[in-house]
Prior knowledge:
alpha/beta, four-stranded parallel beta sheet, four-stranded mixed beta sheet, 10 helices
Amino acid sequence: MEALTEAGHQVRGLDSLSPAVHNGKPSYLPNEWDLRVADVRDSAAVEDALDGMDAVCHLAAMVGLGVSLADLPLYADVNVTGTAVLLDAMGRRGVPRLVLSSSMVVYGEGAYECPLDGSVRPLPRAGADLEAGIFEPRCPLCGAALYWSTVGEGAVLDPRNAYATSKVAQEHLAANWARLTGGVAIGLRYHNVYGPRMPRDTPYSGVAAIFRSCLENAVPPLVFEDGGQRRDFVHVRDVARCNVLALAATGAPDAPVPAAGTLRAYNVASGTPHTVLEMASALAAEFGGGVEPKVTGDYRLGDVRHIVASPAAAARDLGFTAAISFAEGMAEFAKAPLRAPAALHPLPSPS
């Protein structure tokens, strides 16, 4: 809301203020801002919130990999049904522009090269390999070790957990909405977002926030596998700025973005990948206090090994390039206060 307001938009927010994430209305939101507290699955509340609006930035979602099978219905209900309810209400209210927050998880594993077979898509990693400490994906054709590459928006979608499946469904629903209404939609595939105001002590959060919560509690961050999983960590202020740029693009008749009736997706990433262990170590060093990350060798089925994006399309079409470096962002995030959720949950050890 801050970035959109600063860009000159009149903004109305709708948020369930889920206790797994919030402990009430965020204190940093000015009282004069229009924030409606309601669930995205509440059709009447959503349609009422859309009154007078000409565009939507849709960020409402249940996030994280999930901590048990019992989470599956919630991911499907909040993320898929909630998006369908929102899009239906947008159609009835005649709201023609959508910026959808999607995720890198829609790709499954990233892009890989085999020295013998060229570009390949690895199968999900076998439990026996993971148990044996073999974490790198194998070539599905010859079994050789693979080398990671950057994944572009044209890659085949291959969701490998419930959250990822729900984000693919959101993209498809948004495309359906665009075709049926003639609306314009942009999907922003966020990579690993981190930064100030993330929630503390909740498993439904990104790896950076979970590690930061561990440090806050003087608990070593537990790094799964060997810590060599490669990710792209992008600062939340860069992500907010990309939303502003994408919203502007949906309303610009000469912008090189989707025509009415279509959806186009963009990677939102820094373009400079780091391993999970590098992130944990940088965060711990900046936090101070003598707590170091611990590499466990443990794993989770459904996790992917490397997912590194090409942000070239967002730079070309939206004018977005990440401005906050990894070192600068981690130094800030290590000291930034976290929000305390109203309902505290045991922390898992993510990858």
